[in-house]
């Protein structure tokens, strides 16, 4: 039962029209003259199986895959190649017994795959083909002139060729994908880590500031509580003092009024008493009159004394003595001035004595003067005396009146003094009341002033006046602050305010920035955790895949090696050959761990890895009869033989579903070409062969033979030559 059932070409390279080639047999040979288009069929296989490079398909550009037209045949716009597979064993994950894989390309370069008519993306197709052990390159698809491909390839490429046949390419693809994802995850992680590390110092700063502000709200709340209790207590106490301050009773004020009235009345009375009175005027008049009377009386006494002295002189006058006029006038002049002085005297006795003295002085002269009439003089004196008596009587009268008046005045004064005393007493009482009243208002004023001061302080700390009043009136006074710890509370408030001002105001924008930065940092941290986990998972996956690939590979490798030696000996008629695994690439140095906070933890969980190191397959040979061990020293044919030996060794251990070989036998001599044909025949039970060949031996072992020709129109045509026979 053939796995590959056929190929369809249309518009592909020289196959302008639709060409269907079915493969009912295990060995199908394609033959034809040079340039007829045989290799184009091989290209078609490679292209439909996912070859991307135009160069690999012998076309400068992908457009060259489309039939370009010839002078006799017009170009086409679309190339299609389809492979028909038997899918009874579900080699393709499609629920169908046959799978038709097709690839199309138009001149715009649009290429599209489909499976059973359904489009499929190349990236989905590639693992599917790998699982079915189908590839566009390698040992299963050997191009013309590349029969030595196994020898000519690098050790790593050899290994990949073997892996493809072993069906390990699927894991290799997965590994590559995982490695790519790992790489991009690492790059992402580096980026995220760099962002986190860049953010962190600023975030720390913002965090510290925010913490300070968090402490600020604690302080603010403590301060507020303290202020509330402190001020409400103070204010409340004063309000209580104010309401309970002892107001002077109403009766006192009434009494004060009455006292004032009384004082007014008493004042009036005193004023009346103090007014200059009739009595006082009278008293003055009496005094004046008495004075006047005394003056008059003095004058009368003087006149009387004068007369008496005259009389005495008359009586005692010496007879015959001469009268000295000059002396008399001088004496008289002196007497007159003395008398004028004496007229002012009040003392009667003094006046009398003076009068007697004057009389004596004068009488000396009268004794010399002619005698006068004594009788007339006596009468004169009598008159004078009578007048004096009258005056005395009057003076006596006036004295009595004066005394009376003095008594009356004394009484009035006494009364006045009494009144003044009384007024003073009343005034003292009023003053006492005033002191009490003033004390009360002082006390009230003091309390009010203190309350105003507290209100100012309260407003000064940015609070509303009403709030304080409301709190106090609602009785929400905090009793925590009482007299005992008031100063302590004040000190504490002072300290808290100091702390707050040192802290500065809360910058809302900065808080927002801190929150945003925090969110961003959390996001980055989560990203790092996710990436870290993803990296861990990918590394684990890669390790698992490596284990799987290595395990499967090494298990098959030993058998392949044995088969290789056998086939080598068969091909070369002796000698020795072996495949050797060799790791050329050295392990990468472990990455230095970052010192970032989060990053360090994430990174440190992963062991350093050994990526991309692959054990390549080296070939060691010992040719019979030759001392050649270096592959480069082999001839072209020898290289092809070694490659073919490897190919059959591989088929012997794990046969691929089919092989497409383009003139692999070309460099071989007749003997070796026959050997090759025999091997093809031998292994055709294990794998299907599609072979382009010019070699008769190969053609002979083919079950089906297709001929390709190209006529004048430049279009390849297919001839089935051995088909019937093969059947
Ligand atoms: P040989 O036996 O010498 O290897 P071959 O049979 O393998 O020959 P191919 O190389 O398959 O021949 O075919 C080459 C021919 O295909 C050439 O004649 C070339 O002009 C023709 N060809 C290639 N590409 C195109 C294309 N895009 N349009 C038309 N013809 C093309």
From TrEMBL:
Residues 583-611 are annotated as: Disordered. Residues 3-716 form the RecF/RecN/SMC N-terminal domain. Gene3D superfamilies: P-loop containing nucleotide triphosphate hydrolases. Pfam families: SMC_N (PF02463). Residues 168-195, 381-429, 514-541 form a coiled coil. Keywords: Coiled coil. InterPro entries: P-loop_NTPase, RecF/RecN/SMC_N. This is RecF/RecN/SMC N-terminal domain-containing protein. It comes from Candidatus Jorgensenbacteria bacterium RIFCSPHIGHO2_02_FULL_45_20.
């Amino acid at each position: 039962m053939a796995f590959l059932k056929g190929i369809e070409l249309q518009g592909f390279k020289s196959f302008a029209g639709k060409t269907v080639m079915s493969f009912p047999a295990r060995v199908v040979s394609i033959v034809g003259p040079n340039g007829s288009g045989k290799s184009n069929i091989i290209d078609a296989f490679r292209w439909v199986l996912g070859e991307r490079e135009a160069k690999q398909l012998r076309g400068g550009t992908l457009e060259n895959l489309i039939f370009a037209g010839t002078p006799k045949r017009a170009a086409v716009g679309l190339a299609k190649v389809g492979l028909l597979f038997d899918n009874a064993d579900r080699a393709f994950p499609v629920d169908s017994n046959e799978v038709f894989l097709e690839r199309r390309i138009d001149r715009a370069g649009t290429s599209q795959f489909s499976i059973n008519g359904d489009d499929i993306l190349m990236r989905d197709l590639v693992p599917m083909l790998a699982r079915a052990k189908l590839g566009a390159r390698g040992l299963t698809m050997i191009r013309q002139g590349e029969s030595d491909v196994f020898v000519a390839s690098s050790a790593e490429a050899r290994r990949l060729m073997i892996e493809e046949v072993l069906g390990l390419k699927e894991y290799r693809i997965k590994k590559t994908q995982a490695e790519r994802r790992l790489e991009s995850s690492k790059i992402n992680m580096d980026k995220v880590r760099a962002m986190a590390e860049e953010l962190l110092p600023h975030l720390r700063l913002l965090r510290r500031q925010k913490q300070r502000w968090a402490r600020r709200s604690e302080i603010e709340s403590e301060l507020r509580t303290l202020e509330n209790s402190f001020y409400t207590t103070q204010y409340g106490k004063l309000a209580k003092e104010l309401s309970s301050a002892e107001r002077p009773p109403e009766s006192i004020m009434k009494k004060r009024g009455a006292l004032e009235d009384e004082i007014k009345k008493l004042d009036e009375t005193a004023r009346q008493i103090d007014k200059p009175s009739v009595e006082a005027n009278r008293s003055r008049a009496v005094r004046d009159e008495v004075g006047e009377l005394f003056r008059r009386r003095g004058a009368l006494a003087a006149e009387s004394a004068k007369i008496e002295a005259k009389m005495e002189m008359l009586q005692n006058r010496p007879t015959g003595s001469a009268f000295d006029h000059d002396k008399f006038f001088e004496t008289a002049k002196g007497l007159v001035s003395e008398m004028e002085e004496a007229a002012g005297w009040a003392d009667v006795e003094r006046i009398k004595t003076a009068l007697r003295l004057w009389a004596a002085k004068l009488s000396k002269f009268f004794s010399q003067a002619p005698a006068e009439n004594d009788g007339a003089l006596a009468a004169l004196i009598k008159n004078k005396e009578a007048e004096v008596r009258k005056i005395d009587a009057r003076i006596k009268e006036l004295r009595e009146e004066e005394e009376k008046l003095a008594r009356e005045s004394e009484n009035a004064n006494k009364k006045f003094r009494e009144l003044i005393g009384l007024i003073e007493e009343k005034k003292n009482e009023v003053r006492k009341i005033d002191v009490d009243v003033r004390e009360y208002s002082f006390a009230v004023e003091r309390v009010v002033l203190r309350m105003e001061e507290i209100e100012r302080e309260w407003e000064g700390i940015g609070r509303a006046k009403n709030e304080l009043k409301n709190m106090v009136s609602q009785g929400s006074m905090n009793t925590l602050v009482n007299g005992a710890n008031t100063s302590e509370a004040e000190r504490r408030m002072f300290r808290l305010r100091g702390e707050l001002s040192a802290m500065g105001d809360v910058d809302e924008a900065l808080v927002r920035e801190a929150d945003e930065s925090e969110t961003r940092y959390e996001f980055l941290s989560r990203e790092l955790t996710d990436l870290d986990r993803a990296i861990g998972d990918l590394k684990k996956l890669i390790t698992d895949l490596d284990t799987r690939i290595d395990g499967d590979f090494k298990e098959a490798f030993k058998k392949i090696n044995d088969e290789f030696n056998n086939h080598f000996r068969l091909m070369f008629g002796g000698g020795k050959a072996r495949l050797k695994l060799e790791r050329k690439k050295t392990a990468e140095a472990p990455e230095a761990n970052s010192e970032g906070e989060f990053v360090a933890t994430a990174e440190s969980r992963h062991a350093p890895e050994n990526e991309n190191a692959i054990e390549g397959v080296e070939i060691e040979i010992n040719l019979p009869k030759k001392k050649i061990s270096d592959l480069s020293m082999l001839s072209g044919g020898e290289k092809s033989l070694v490659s073919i030996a490897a190919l059959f060794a591989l088929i012997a251990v794990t046969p691929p579903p089919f092989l497409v070989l383009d003139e692999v036998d070309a460099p071989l001599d007749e003997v070796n070409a026959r050997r090759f044909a025999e091997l093809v025949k031998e292994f055709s039970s294990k794998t299907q062969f599609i072979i382009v060949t010019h070699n008769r031996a190969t053609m002979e072992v083919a079950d089906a033979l297709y001929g390709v020709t190209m006529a004048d129109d430049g279009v390849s045509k297919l001839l089935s030559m051995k088909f019937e026979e093969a059947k």
